[in-house]
Amino acid sequence: MNSPTPSPSPAPVPSATTSRRRWLAAGVGAAAAVAGAGLAWQRLQPHAAPAALSETETAFWASGFNAPAGDAVAMQSFRGKPLVLNFWATWCPPCVEELPLLNGFYREQKARGWQVVGLAIDQPTAVRQFLQRLPLDFPIALGGLGGTDMARSLGNLAGGLPFTVVFGADGNILHRKMGQVTADDLKAWAQLG
């Protein structure tokens, strides 16, 4: 009364065509992943800005912001000399760490015509309190949401801070940097102006 137990059927053997399709699909997926990672890496690397940014540059030079004390800061007033524009915030540790370095650069290079402007992407009260603790020699402007949009238009696609843009005396973008500025960056930029 034992019924015979059916023997398991053997697993199907994949055909050579199926195996090739799987390898092809895996290869295409890997190539897409590598290409995507390469594109992301390239966009986040510091590099010279492309020359075709005239509309962006024009919009930047036409913009204006308020200083922490309330007076107007017109970007046009900085045109004609090389400019380091630094987007920062009081809540951003790398931003705060680089400010004394930028201040030193400004003191050393202003006789050569260099200018530095800090565009704070922060609350006005926080910026005023911060500047009481750490006064800076270069001008600070309050960017707010307009500053965030300005950073994106100048090449900060990731929207991170700190972000720095270097303009030549002719008003064109010479360089962009995502992340904290180093002494080597400033030394190299000083040679551009």
UniProtKB/TrEMBL annotation:
Database matches in InterPro entries: Redoxin (IPR013740), TAT_signal (IPR006311), Thioredoxin-like_sf (IPR036249), Thioredoxin_CS (IPR017937), Thioredoxin_domain (IPR013766), Thioredoxin_ResA/DsbE_sf (IPR050553)
GO MF term list: disulfide oxidoreductase activity; isomerase activity
GO CC aspect terms: cell envelope
Annotated localization: Cell envelope
Keywords: Cytochrome c-type biogenesis, Isomerase, Redox-active center
GO biological process, one term: cytochrome complex assembly
Residue ranges occupied by any Thioredoxin domain in the UniProt entry: 61-193
Gene3D superfamilies named among the record's database cross-references: Glutaredoxin
Pfam families listed in its UniProt record: Redoxin
Xref: PANTHER family: PROTEIN DIPZ, THIOL:DISULFIDE INTERCHANGE PROTEIN DSBE
Name of the protein in its database record: Thiol-disulfide isomerase or thioredoxin
